[in-house]
Amino acid sequence: MGLSERENMRKKSIVESMLSGSTDSTEMQVTEQDINIVPKIKAETRSKRVNLLVTPSVYRDAQKKCKRMGISLNECINQFLANWVQM
User: Fold this and answer.
1) How far is CA 39 from CA 19, 31, 74, in A?
2) Helices 56-69 and 73-86 sit at what angle, rounded to 10 degrees?
3) What CA–CA distance (Å, rounded) separates 1 from 70?
4) How does pLDDT run across 25-72, given as a tens digit for each residue?
5) Which residues contact 76 (CB under 8 A, 6 or more apart)?
6) Cβ(58)–Cβ(14) under 8 Å?
7) In angstroms, rounded to a whole number, what is the distance separating the alpha carbons of residues 83 and 23?
8) pLDDT at 83
9) Domain that holds residue 43
């Protein structure tokens, strides 16, 4: 898979649509109401680590959005995954 193919897949991803605010993905449309990410008290100890590779622009935009929401990027991803596996 080439770089241009990966970039096209990223542009169609749920995360990209969340960050950009667009909902043109035909596979799954997600609104901010669907993703309940809010600051909250941690009830379970986090002991698993995951490395993510993202583009610099996605990382920058996600950091900005998390800062506006008053949560860390780690908390955002943790809550997103928790909500996603429950869907």
Assistant:
1) 18, 18, 11
2) 90
3) 37
4) 444 455 555 566 666 666 777 788 999 999 999 999 999 999 998 889
5) 37, 62, 65, 66, 69
6) no
7) 19
8) 86
9) 3-86
